[in-house]
Amino acid sequence: MSIDATTFKQAAGSFASSVTIVSVASPQGFQAMTATAFCSLSLNSTLVLACLDRNSRTLSGFRNSQDFNINILSWEQQHLSRLFASRGTGERSLDGIKFRLTDSGLPVFEGAAATLECKCVELVEGGDHVIVVGEVKNAAIRGEVEPLIYFRGAYRRLAALEE
């Protein structure tokens, strides 16, 4: 039995996910892209994974560098999600965006819900994507923050939790 691509995409899009920006070091500074296919993988060793389209410009950076980071975006960072989701081939301007660079030259965006600095330990082929497995070397979280959630093709908010 085979499922059509549209039904599969709609069903998979019914899984609410965080929105991240995955960045990898490159000779030009860094390459980055928006990714919703991200999760923790292991506590011992501290591993995470992100899935990148096989045709992504950012993926090429993983073949040449071990260092990457993940910014888990907050609600007020929708503009960053859109900026790094574009498929254009030109360099993205960071004018007006508040960030600092890690020792590896990767951006940590001010206001992110959390950031993870990682070392790439494995690239696994998976259909039209590549699964990037990273060992987390450093992490930081921001206090009370509303996360940016993606569900059924749109940004969503968490409902207030009942006390």
Query: Would you identify the CATH architecture?
Result: Roll
Whole-number tally of structural domains:
1
- Percent range of helical residues: 10-25%
The largest sheet, given as strand count, sense and whether it forms a barrel, is: 7 strands, antiparallel
| Secondary structure: number of strands | 12
Mean pLDDT across every amino acid position: 88
> Biggest sheet, strands in spatial order?
3-2-6-9-10-5-4
Structural class: mainly beta
Overall 3D shape: globular
- Enumerate how many helices there are, as a single number: 3
Q: Can you write the helix and strand succession as a string?
A: HEEEEEHEHEEEEEE
Could you please say which CATH topology applies here? Pnp Oxidase, Chain A
N-to-C span:
46 Å
Proportion of residues in extended strands: 35-45%
Uncertain regions: pLDDT < 50 for 5+ in a row? none
Rounded to the nearest angstrom, the radius of gyration is: 16 Å
CATH class: Mainly Beta
